[in-house]
């Protein structure tokens, strides 16, 4: 019987089965940042332990960093203290730290792939929920908690259950103006936020085959929002082309050997799945969330759904969402006024996201609607520099968006980029939970960067295809 990619990579990394029935799994790569690592380092030092594999551990600062200026000391004293702690810990344990002053810093799930650290067949972990992003390369990538960060620092291993595997096939061709973000939101809408619990998601089929690596990262990034422990796309020529020549990619004969090995990391034709779900690309329209979970979404031409459309066990959350968002069932999603437009995050803060927005705005003389606060926050310094080199920053700022320094920014608003009061944000990030963007009563609508740009221009939720007059999938 054949194996899935999940089983192949899992089996390669098993150290032993534990008496609990779990498996001790070796982690090929450990990414750390300033929020979930300080306590883990303290716990390590309390026990006189050191970092076992500093050469497999890489750090960046992303959540707390201001995006107006990265000059030190940061205005927020707590942010400065967290930065100093990360500097001290990485120095003491000889861990490579991608710092802002060397223009290497960025969001952890943007920096890892762009430096070539994320490679097919790896096991990867990070004290951050959206580590699933790295599955785009055919890696098994897990978000972990602080005590697990400690465990990985000390042992480079994690105790893990074996997951079931669900193959999610999307076949056909996406309509113009429908993006990877719409695909991943559509899947979550159909399978629910708990649908993936206990599963690894294998994204397969013509739509994922045709996607760029950055689009695949957008999809895998949100596997966790569908409840899956991780999500992956099988490596192919697109993966190898992306990785070739990156800082940490193998070179020369080692590259040739790596590609031969990576080509074996595909699910076998006779692999058996615990579940298979199939969707037709033609059924996917631009998606916008209307509620307080990423599954509470609808297509742009549609309305906030009625209570009757949900099963009994979801109705309490749906009513909570109507109340919190101040939306009524039957209300059209298009035309809802927005106060803030945020393009960024580890879901959609990459160069191709900024390129798409710039290409939609270019030469049209469109301006951000008066009263809307609109910002584009690159996922990393590398993204920012490339965007500037290609002139995207000019197009974006001429249209009235701010073009900021890299960081997580308003995705989680642990830095000064926050919603105020009941403000409503059109956001390219990944979570629309209550209070997620920095105000305890603030509201978030998740959508693709193109749709955020359209909302910024119109001052309300709008169909990007109509606003920009194109069928914009480049
Ligand atoms: S961009 Fe958002 S989801 Fe991604 S790592 Fe930062 S806070 Fe987490």
Please render the helix and strand layout as text:
Elements: H1 5-13, E1 14-17, E2 23-26, E3 29-32, H2 38-46, E4 57-60, H3 77-92, E5 96-98, H4 108-114, E6 123-126, E7 140-143, H5 146-155, E8 157-160, E9 164-171, H6 180-191, E10 199-204, H7 206-210, H8 213-221, E11 230-233, H9 237-243, H10 252-262, E12 275-280, E13 287-289, E14 297-299, H11 315-325, E15 340-343, H12 345-348, H13 351-361, E16 373-376, H14 381-389, H15 392-398, E17 402-403, E18 424-427, E19 443-446, H16 449-458, H17 464-467
Helix pairs in contact: 2-5, 6-8, 13-15
Bound molecules: iron/sulfur cluster (SF4).
What level of helicity do the residues show? Answer: 25-40%
Largest sheet: 5 strands, parallel
Choose one word for the global shape: globular
Strand order of the largest sheet: 5-4-3-6-7
Helix count, per DSSP? 17
The residue-averaged pLDDT reads 97
Distance between the ends = 40 Å
Low-confidence spans: pLDDT under 50, at least 5 residues?
Answer: none
Ions, cofactors and other ligands present here are: iron/sulfur cluster
Proportion of β residues? 15-25%
Explain what you see.
The chain is of the alpha/beta class and 474 residues long. The chain has helices at 5-13, 38-46, 77-92, 108-114, 146-155, 180-191, 206-210, 213-221, 237-243, 252-262, 315-325, 345-348, 351-361, 381-389, 392-398, 449-458, 464-467; strands at 14-17, 23-26, 29-32, 57-60, 96-98, 123-126, 140-143, 157-160, 164-171, 199-204, 230-233, 275-280, 287-289, 297-299, 340-343, 373-376, 402-403, 424-427, 443-446. The strands form 5 sheets. A 5-stranded parallel sheet has the order 5-4-3-6-7, sandwiched between helices. Strands 17-16-15-18-19 form a 5-stranded parallel sheet, covered by helices on one side. Helix 3 (77-92) links the parallel strand 4 (57-60) and strand 5. Helix 2 crosses helix 5 (146-155), helix 6 (180-191) packs parallel to helix 8 and helix 13 packs across helix 15. It is globular. The two termini are 40 Å apart. The model has no long low-confidence stretch (mean pLDDT 97). The chain binds iron/sulfur cluster (SF4).
